[in-house]
Design goal:
The chain folds into two domains: 90 residues, Alpha-Beta Plaits (2-Layer Sandwich); 192 residues, Rossmann fold, CATH 3.40.50. It has nine helices and 15 strands. It starts with a strand and ends with a strand. Helix 5 links the parallel strand 8 and strand 9. The protein is 28% helix and 30% strand. It is elongated and about 65 Å long. By secondary structure, the chain is an alpha/beta fold. One of its GO terms (molecular function) is methyltransferase activity. It is found in: Cytoplasm. It comes from Corallincola platygyrae. Pfam families: PrmA.
Amino acid sequence: MPWLQLRLNATAETAEKVGDLMSACGALSVTFLDSKDTPVFEPLPGETRLWGETDVMGLWDAEADMDIVVNYLQHHGGLSEGQRYKLEPLEDKDWEREWMDNFHPMQFGKRLWICPSWRDAPAPDAVNVILDPGLAFGTGTHPTTSLCLQWLDSLELKDKTVIDFGCGSGILAVAALKLGAKHAIGIDIDPQAIQASRDNAERNGVSDRLELYLPEQQPDNLKADVVVANILAGPLKQLASQIVTLPKSGGHLALSGVLESQAEDVATAYSGAITLDPIIHQEEWARISGVAK
């Protein structure tokens, strides 16, 4: 069945009211996208963002009279006069199947391939990570994940311990283990990420070398030879004092999930404890890396 999506801007203070008004006039679902804390929705360098700090999106049956919906929102304060909004049809698709059909094996660096679990590995003699991201973030298709995978492939990981801070699907921890790491530790605030990481480790035959923790469960005084944190610029800055304690002296650290425009600011938060490498860019994203002092 086809759908109609109404998308408009709101503030953090008004978004809930707008969502309630959408529900009251027949929205089948309402979604909030917080642009302030989610870089994937931030503007690209030089781009002016069309929407405000919070996007509110409502979904209606294609037969709904959207003039009535818009008038209702305007009358009840959910849509001010002259405020821009976007109304668009959504084609009815099997979105999961379409995504699976377009997720192909990908190579990172010289040795590493990420291969979805429903496809054959293209290079059986290479280092192949078989991945099913499930409900957790991390497939290798996003530049931030790609930057981290390339970095891991460039290191000598034999007999090393690796921490994947914000492990998501476990792609970085599992890749490190397949590349020769002796032991890996994944940390994430989302229990679904912990489960996805566990499943992917089992799928790749490395579950006996991977420990997984929610932050409140992680051991004290945790240290590793290699630490990678592919999260967001805001949390990377807020948690800098915690993250810089994770690599051993002389250990390697990489940070991503950062836009080019945010990279210098994030790097500054780590410069006191990390001897930084040149910042590496891919598309509009960046990777910050270095060695613990």
